[in-house]
Amino acid sequence: MLFGAVIGLERELRRKPAGLRTHMLVSLGSALFVLALLQTAAVSPDYDPLSRVIQGVAAGVGFLGAGEILRESPKEESQRTKVRGLTSAAAIWISAALGIAAGCGLWQLGLISTVLSFLVLNVLKRLQ
């Protein structure tokens, strides 16, 4: 999350659509997908089907997230196009990672990630 925060802060300062919270959630979700696979691979020698399921879930949920992103066309040519919903899309994606952690029996990892996600979505929103 810290690595994502560094990039997200830079994007936030430049007033780009994907800012601090979005980058932090994507970093956390990516780490969660990988950790779930690594933890499961450590206890099961036949984890190839699981890795395919995780890949399929991550890609499929990406389409749901894409549906959450809206572009508002500018009313005048001098205005920029507004992009909205990137953080919501990232939250949908991390929800998939949390489901995978739960499905793999990694409840501690899922609980920690849920708390971190909640803090990013709520506490950082207030600070923003």
TrEMBL record:
It comes from the Bacteria. One of its GO terms (cellular component) is plasma membrane. Pfam families: MgtC (PF02308). The chain crosses the membrane at residues 20-41, 53-71. It is found in: Cell membrane. The keyword Membrane applies. The keyword Cell membrane applies. Residues 1-127 form the MgtC/SapB/SrpB/YhiD N-terminal domain. It is a multi-pass membrane protein. Belongs to the MgtC/SapB family. This is MgtC/SapB/SrpB/YhiD N-terminal domain-containing protein. Keywords: Cell membrane, Membrane, Transmembrane, Transmembrane helix. InterPro entries: MgtC/SapB/SrpB/YhiD_fam, MgtC_SapB_SrpB_YhiD_N.
